[in-house]
Amino acid sequence: MSDWITTFILTDKSQIIINELQRDLKSDAVVIVICITYLLYVVVAKIRKKDYFDRKLVPISLLILALGVSWLFQDYKALQYFQNEYTKLVNIYENQGYKTTEGVVRVQHMEPVTGHTAGDIILVNSVMFEFRCASGTLGYNEIIAFGGVLTEGAMAKIYYYQSGTEFPDQNLILRIDLMENKSSIDKESTFLECTK
Question: pTM value?
Answer without folding.
Answer: 0.72
